[in-house]
Amino acid sequence: MADGQLSTPTHPTPRTEDERLDRLRLVRSRRVGAVTYHRLLAEHGSTRAALSALPAIAKAAGVEGYEVCPLGVVQTELKQGRTLGATLLVHGEADYPRALMEIADAPPILWAKGDISLLNLPAIGMVGARNASSLGVRMARRLGLGLSEAGFTVVSGLARGIDTAAHEAALEGPGRTIAVMAGGIDVIYPAENAALAAVLDTNGCRISEHPPGLEPQARHFPLRNRIVAGLSRAVIVVEAAAKSGSLITAKAALDYGRDVMAVPGHPFDARASGCNMLIRDGALLIRGPQDVLEALGAPTEGTPEPEMRLPPLPGPSAPQRPLKEVALLHAMILNRLGPSPLAEDQLMRDLNVTPAQLAPELLTLELDGRISRQPGGLLARVM
């Protein structure tokens, strides 16, 4: 039951709580992705009929003993989400983002915290490197504030670097900001953005298509990126390597008919290579907020230009590991790994680090394409 291509999905709006639970059961059933979900509803006419047909479809695909997601599992998810103060948005409902209704692989459900009205306001996505340069961070802040002042909502992924700068700057203006989560709505990644996430819950919005409690894995980040692109009228790439998640977001934006814009950088800076490639291939070159607003036909008068100072975020925040320490740990991991797979727990013992110390750095290296995961919890260095 692999996901394929289909036209923009349209389904009847779920009208009862039982129908919403059935929708949740369908999307949480094994091997049902967003595209398969929409195809099943289109082919079978109702969620209940799609659920009934799933075991036979799975058997025809060679999957024996298939069972749909139990009702108790989604009832527990619904209770968890509501306990967290999150709102369940189902594809087709009035509060569901209209921009996402336009894309074929729209998330069937979203958990949302904060001001969900932002999900249906004009938005611009901003993505870029986690190890951003100081100039990249300044540009992200300048763009975030300028677009927010112009009335746009800034959409990003709550990651380190460019994402964080874009969210923080947008909060300084009236346009606010939306964070798309790669894990559950209650799983803040990276942990150092816990205070920022708390601010978004009152002055912005956070959304996730995953159940509460789900820890982000590498395969979740491209899924998150498509939502950033789908929500946005345009996507701006501030800094990005030639192979990066930011370019996945740009590709999704092109697939959805969104504008792609990029900030140029020095040819010798690897963090700019992806942006320069995008510009070479036709993306709009961006020097500041005015370029974005002009491209979108929005007013540009009064757009702030100077670098602003951001006040410290309120509330507790997890201590951020010094970059030198992170770089050292990355070097130790890469030195220990080779093309022959090594068990993750053996790597942890060899380096004498805790799972909490190792897991986020493995994910960072995996997203950078420097290591790969293999079946059985094995890791290998990409040579």
Q: Structural class, judged by helices and strands?
A: alpha/beta
CATH architecture group name of the largest domain: 3-Layer(aba) Sandwich
Task: Please state roughly what percent of the residues sit in beta strands, choosing from under 5%, 5-15%, 15-25%, 25-35%, 35-45% or over 45%.
Answer: 5-15%
CATH class of the largest domain: Alpha Beta
Compute the number of structural domains. Answer: 3
Give the averaged pLDDT, no decimals: 88
**Low-confidence segments, ≥5 residues, pLDDT <50?**
1-6, 302-319
Spatial gap, N to C terminus: 33 Å
CATH topology tier name of the largest domain: Rossmann fold
The H/E string reads: HHHHEEEHEHEHEHEHEHEHHEHHEE
Spatial sequence of strands, sheet with the most strands? 1-2-6-5-4-3-7-8-9
| Helix content, binned percent | 40-55%
Number of H- or I-type helical stretches: 14
Beta strand count: 12
Using the alpha-carbon principal axes, give the shape.
globular
Radius of gyration: 21 Å
Task: Characterize the main sheet.
Answer: 9 strands, mixed
